Amino acid sequence: MSDLLTAAELRALDLTTELTNLLAGEIIGNGTTRAGDVNEMCRRIHDVQHMIMAQAAARAFPEKFRVLGE
After folding, report:
1. Whole-angstrom Cα distance, residue 30 to residue 11?
2. Long-range contacts for 16-22 (Cβ within 8 Å, ≥24 apart)?
3. 12-57 pLDDT, tens digit each
4. Which are the contacts of 64, defined by CB distance < 8 A and separation ≥ 6?
5. Where are the domains of the chain?
6. Residue 51: which of 39, 40, 63, 67 has the closest Cα?
7. What is the pTM of this model?
8. Is the C-alpha dihedral spanning 40, 45, 48, 52 positive or negative?
9. Sign of CA dihedral 10, 11, 12, 15
């Protein structure tokens, strides 16, 4: 386990990977808008990932950043 992220945060990041693979592999079709739709989905997944990873920064620099929910 990483010293920077908790086990729950690492699991949440793993779930974003699983979700990305499911959406790109089985839900988003292969038509003409696929590339744009995959890019749009990835931007939203990255937003979630950044929220999770920001927890480590908030713990490291509590005077600058706020931990989610506090």
Report:
1. 29
2. 16/45, 16/48, 16/49, 16/52, 19/45, 20/45
3. 999 999 999 999 999 999 999 999 999 999 999 999 999 999 999 9
4. none
5. 1-25+33-70
6. 67
7. 0.88
8. negative
9. positive
